[in-house]
Amino acid sequence: MAEKTISLIITRQNSPDSTPYEEKFEVRYRENMNIISALMEIQRNPVNANGEKTAPVTWESNCLEEVCGACSMVINGIPRQACSTLVDKLEQPIRLAPMSTFPVMRDLAIDRSRMFDSLKKVKAWIPIDGTHDLGPGPRMPEKKRQWAYELSKCMTCGVCLEACPNVNSKSEFIGPQSLSQVRLFNAHPTGAMNKGERLETLMEDGGIAGCGNSQNCVQVCPKGIPLTTSIAALNRETNIQSFKNFFGSDYAY
């Protein structure tokens, strides 16, 4: 009886400036196999479907349990995590490609600098100035903590940016991931000290006005984060901030 195999067609690219091409592979099937397992089989024996020796496929992964977000790629046309995508649930041949929103470094490995630069732009952190050793800070109300926790599940995988039609090489739009992080850090009692600064950043070019409300982001998010809810809330917050800027910080709302 012939050994069962799975077929993969992988979009490859030797360098950031080289032309992408497709290469087909056949790997031995195993029950409960995920995409990372298939790529590891190719790494162990880098021979394509024609029996030709080739370079091992380059990809990124780390935690292998859908926590780090490193293994994001386009699988059968859908951006998702390779570690949690099971071969048994995919049509063959399985097509793997790098996410097109980000520059390709090699094969399936991409440069996520755009996403991290956006996080820097909106100051997605809580600054400390040396007074953090004065004891516990203010407590977050439980109701707010519950929805903020959902936003904190973001693993910076970039899948929402890949799915968003407004995030592309011709646009400066920072994307849904960074927008949601603004809402998360503005909700924190200490992070709220920089709330106005973050909102004003969203009012600039590339900010919240770049969202076209396609809602693709919330559909593909592997963590089920309510991204569109955050964007709607930030629309209101930026409108309020614009009135504050116009009338002065003492204006009542």
TrEMBL record:
Keywords associated with the record: 2Fe-2S, 3Fe-4S, 4Fe-4S, Iron, Iron-sulfur, Metal-binding, Oxidoreductase, Tricarboxylic acid cycle
Gene Ontology BP terms: respiratory electron transport chain; tricarboxylic acid cycle
Domain 4Fe-4S ferredoxin-type: 145-173
Gene Ontology MF terms in the entry: 2 iron, 2 sulfur cluster binding; 3 iron, 4 sulfur cluster binding; 4 iron, 4 sulfur cluster binding; electron transfer activity; metal ion binding; succinate dehydrogenase (quinone) activity
EC number(s) recorded for this UniProt protein: 1.3.5.1
Matching InterPro entries: 2Fe-2S_ferredoxin-like_sf, 4Fe4S_Fe-S-bd, 4Fe4S_Fe_S_CS, Beta-grasp_dom_sf, Helical_ferredxn, SDH/FRD_Iron-Sulfur, Succ_DH/fum_Rdtase_Fe-S, Succ_DH/fum_Rdtase_N
Superkingdom as given in the UniProt entry: Bacteria
Keyword Cell inner membrane: no
Cofactor: [3Fe-4S] cluster; [4Fe-4S] cluster; [2Fe-2S] cluster
Membership in a protein family: Belongs to the succinate dehydrogenase/fumarate reductase iron-sulfur protein family.
Full protein name: succinate dehydrogenase
